[in-house]
Amino acid sequence: MIPNFQAHPWHGIPAGKNAPEVVNVFIEIVPSDTIKYEIDKLSGYLKVDRPQQFSNIIPALYGFIPRTYCHDEVKKLAIESGSEDVKMGDLDPLDICVLSSHNIHAGGLLMEAIPIGGFKMIDKGEADDKIVAVMVGDHAFGHVRDITELPEAEVKRLKHYFLTYKNLPDEPAKCRIDEVYGAEHAKQVIEASQKDYANKFGGY
């Protein structure tokens, strides 16, 4: 009898058979979390990263796309699309936040999402893109196909979180967002991160 093992969320699950049009997402944290959880790269279990400080609570479901990695190809794309002072990718799976009208109580789960855009974030010289997506079939957001279709306030709310979530009060910004891009560029970022994963770990 062949024993069953839980797949590693980063390495053992595909990005999705229709990626980058529709991607698998492993959710690490949800808006109700006051602790920031992240995947332990060795074991695949969620671990406590740090307590969330002050009022910077994630405004959407947040996690990563399996079998992605941000290194040379992601860096190259950031530079080609106009960013300066980019030394490397952030050496992590590609981050993604997923908009949904549903109240999901905890992370550690998989879902399918449709990328609609993203933020070209540069964090201390590292390309640290944040893909924005909508949950497949969501009643409020599921029809959206590009970030330009979202209310401006929704985009600003996400952007503000990513610009401030690492900061203490009165500290200067530790990162910057060079561009808010649409669905087509988001798909290019996903494909670049898949190439980086293949170069680092093998085929995807």
From TrEMBL:
The UniProt record lists the EC number as: 3.6.1.1
Cofactor (UniProt): Mg(2+)
Tell me which positions the record assigns to the signal sequence.
Answer: none
One function term, GO molecular function aspect: inorganic diphosphate phosphatase activity
Q: What class of enzyme is it?
A: hydrolase
- Give the record's GO biological process terms: phosphate-containing compound metabolic process
Task: State the Pfam families in the record.
Answer: Pyrophosphatase (PF00719)
Q: State whether keyword Isomerase applies.
A: no
Q: Would you say which domain of life the source belongs to?
A: Bacteria
| InterPro entries for this protein | Pyrophosphatase (IPR008162), Pyrophosphatase_sf (IPR036649)
Task: Output the Gene Ontology cellular-component terms.
Answer: cytoplasm
Keyword list, A-Z: Hydrolase, Magnesium, Metal-binding
Keyword Lipoprotein part of the UniProt annotation: no
PANTHER family linked: INORGANIC PYROPHOSPHATASE
Q: What is this protein called?
A: inorganic diphosphatase
Q: Which organism is it from?
A: Chryseobacterium taklimakanense
Q: Which lineage do the record's taxonomy fields give for this organism?
A: Bacteria, Pseudomonadati, Bacteroidota, Flavobacteriia, Flavobacteriales
